[in-house]
Amino acid sequence: MKWCPKCGKAKSISEFNKCKNRYDGVSGHCKDCKKQYRLKTAKHIQERSKEWRQTHGKEEYVKLSKYMARLKINGCKICVYDNCDA
């Protein structure tokens, strides 16, 4: 049994997501609480993402285009191929 601080209930371990970074190997909040949080914040996250893309999208596209051009000229340093199609 594990206690969920969000809903304040003791639940079985199977009602928590796995999390290898935690000392007990499971998430701190139960699956139901995490799902409710995702549903509650989904609209807000979509709006913020859309706003960010509208303000930063063009400059990020330019950065990516420059990076891809350099990659084609210099080759890929990660996979050590001369002409990487990444």
Give the helix/strand class. alpha+beta
What value does the Rg take, in angstroms? Answer: 22 Å
Question: What spatial form do the alpha-carbon principal axes imply?
Answer: elongated
Order of the strands making up the biggest sheet = 1-2
Whole-number tally of structural domains = 1
Percent strand? 15-25%
Helix content: 40-55%
List the helices and strands in order: EEEEH
Number of strands: 4
Q: What's the rounded overall pLDDT mean?
A: 87
Biggest sheet: strands, sense, closure? 2 strands, antiparallel
Distance separating the two termini: 47 Å
The number of helices is 1
Q: Point out poorly predicted stretches.
A: none
Structure report:
With 86 residues, this protein is α+β, with helices and mostly antiparallel strands. It has one domain. Helices cover 51% and strands 16% of the residues. The chain contains 1 helix and 4 strands, in the order E-E-E-E-H. The strands form 2 sheets. A two-stranded antiparallel ribbon has the order 1-2. A two-stranded antiparallel sheet has the order 3-4. Strand 1 and strand 2 form a beta hairpin. The longest helix has 44 residues. The chain is elongated, with a radius of gyration of 22 Å.
